[in-house]
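> Could you send the Syndetin prediction when you get a chance?

Sure thing. Input:
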Amino acid sequence: MLSEETVEKRNAPPGVNSRSLSIAHSAADLEVLREIENVYFLPPSEFDAGRFVLEHAPATSCDDIERMFTKLKRQQQVVSGKALHLISQQRDNCDREFKEIQTIRDQLSTTLETCQKAREQLRAASNHLTISTFVILANFRKRQIIRSVLKSLELLRSLRSVEKDVAELLTKKEYYEAIQLILKSKKAASSHKEYTCIADLATRLQDTLDMTEEKLDSVLSNICYKFDENVFRKLRKAYALLGKTQAAMEQLHMHYSSAVNESSIEAVKNYVGNAVDMKFQDMCQSVQPNKAPICLLNLCENLFLIMKSYFLLVDWHSKYDDEETVPISNNVFEIEKNVSREYIRQKLKAGLVRIWHDVQAKVSTFLRSSGLEEYPFEKFIQMLGILRKLTQVAEVFCGDKSDLLQDFIKTQSVLYIKNYHRGRMEELKLFLENEGWEQCPVKSTFTLLNLQEFKQFKKYLNLRSDTSFVKAQSDSASSVHSQDDSVYISKYFKQSTNHTPFEIFRNENITNDDIFGLEPEAVSDDSDDEPEELKRDFVDESDQPESTKGSPSKTKDSVIVANTTLSVLRHCGQYLQICRYLPQISLEVVMLMNQLFDYYFFSVHFFFTSDMDVASTTLYSSKLNSVLKRIKNYIDTSNSGEMDGKIPCPESPNHLNLTSEETLHGLSERIVAVESVIFLAKQYELLQPYLESIVASHQKMILEHFKDNTLAVIQDLRVPVYMCSASKAVEVGPALIAMSKVKWDVKDVAVEHSAYVDMIIRKIQVFALRLENVSSKVTLNSEVLSVIWGMVSKFIVHLLVEGFSNATKCSNGGRGLMQLDYRQLFLKLEKISGLKPVPFQEYVDKYVKAYYLPRKGLEEFLQERTEYSNKHLMALITCACENKKDRQALAAIIEAKDASI
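Output:
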């Protein structure tokens, strides 16, 4: 049996609390809701829940009934909680609707009251007014109707003239007034739709509005080519009236993109024969190389006008926003206005970069398609000037560093300079093959700074080798130029005329300094001016005055250069111009300059050592051998034309006479060639501080390596080249035959030298006389003479040792005769050459004195002296050692040393 408390709880209404509301959202409540049968949700008129429960109640036991009751109660609680939760969610909406209903009820009460009062007043009027009064009211009503008709007719008349009035306003550029008139007319027409003619006029007004917007869009597109502040202000006001300010700005940016494309096509098509239906890239490819620079100039000028217009647009908006921006408030209209203004500001700011990228793309397309490698050097430099000016414009325009264009310029410039370098190498090969190797008449103070190509570098190529000084000068000048460029370019952006910063390139007398906006050089003294003859491509000996022909300068420090030397220096000057304007490719250009030097140096060595007839082992230093080996790796000395990637070596000139004894086997040509290479190396050393200032810090090691391992060893070239003439001063065969006739096994010490000494001295005297003749063609300073006579001495000492080693028998008296001969010979040589002391004589002295060494001393001599050949050493031990066993032991030492090598 159920307790009374249980029955009370069962009959009590279901409890709803805050927990039940939260439970409605739990998974358990959702599960309970899903278990409720659908019939319980039918309307009460269609479903009786109590009867349905009684019909389906279990009849088995009270516990089943109790469980059913508990389930139904639980379902009722969940449903009640869910309903209460939904009601609480919609409470605000419900309150709002009730409030609206109450407002409507109040309004209806007021309306009812007004109608009741009106009826009472009408009833009173009907009872008290006379017929005449109604007649007056009827006439007044007619009057009002007629006025309304007249007003409608006046409206019709004005609407019919709207199109004409709008056209006149547009002609006067009164865009705001035109739009205002149309909108006012449309509003008036919409108020009188009851007239059929008015409805037709409303359609025509919409067409007029559309045509007016098209006119505005056309005027807006013209802004892209020439910004007019007054016109744009009117357009902005008109679009604001239409509520299309942002849409107009979007459209304007599209017009700017179209303007860039159209201006590019317009600039290029004048240089293409048939440009109909051609794409821009195809048009660029059709431009002739000789017309490409002027075409590029026109392209940049047209694009600058577009950029200038946009720049002025942004500038105008900046000023306008500062004036028109309203303070922040809670007014929705003002907030929207400020948001729109901020959107336009951001759009304009982004448009600067986007338009510049469009301009970059057009210029890059033109450059990529126009074949830069075919430009003459002067045109290429001019092109670099145009592009440099364009990058300056971009920096002022949007602050962009033009990385895309700079990278493209770098890539194309590297390709151009390599192609240009190939032409210069072919030209240098031709010069070398036809070079006469005659000394050019230049001042003793001549340096590369006297050449026209280097005049603009004078303030950078200070004679002091102070890299930091040069770098500071270069950086300072660069900074000044950068600031001046910004001010200079900004003036063109703010001018009201169509002048552009590119107009300077239309001047035929423009210089490179003008092109790159550099300050003019200080006026130099006449002594620093380049000689008139050096301004030519080559120096003609016939241009010299009669008094100087055949008699070069006798100054002690006279400069020896050839025509080809000046040509190489001029090429270097042109290369440095590219380095100056494109510092990012400086290393590549400097390496090509070094290749010019390598080729010139290697060719001189190749020409003037080809007739060497003595052993070259002692003539080449290890560094000189390394340099020659390095250069030979990329020079094809076979001239077979099959060496891919190698530079063909120049062919030996047929006009060079290196066999005449009268000219000492072309000694004057050899001197001019070698000394011109040495002079060229000195000029390269003069350039080193500047070159180190224009390359990156991590690239300086390459320049230092070239300086220390190539330029520093150039003077070593004198030894093998001058030896080719010095080795022919004395005929080897007759001298050795004469020495072989001398009896070296005499018992007594002779008091007179041998006959061969006089023969050699006579040959040396003849050499000296011919050397004097050579000095009439080329300057022989003390340094050159010292090397020449040093090579004569070197050759003679080797000749003496060779002759002494041919002796099969030699006594102490013979050894004394050897000493007498070579000392007498060197005494004469000292007087003839003027060298004190004569170099290399210890080579003979030590060899002769070795005959007197004891057994142990001779063994040490054989082990330590590596400058003598095995033949010389074997002859020494044959004559010096009478003991056979000692001779065999010493011979074994020579053989062992030879085997170890």
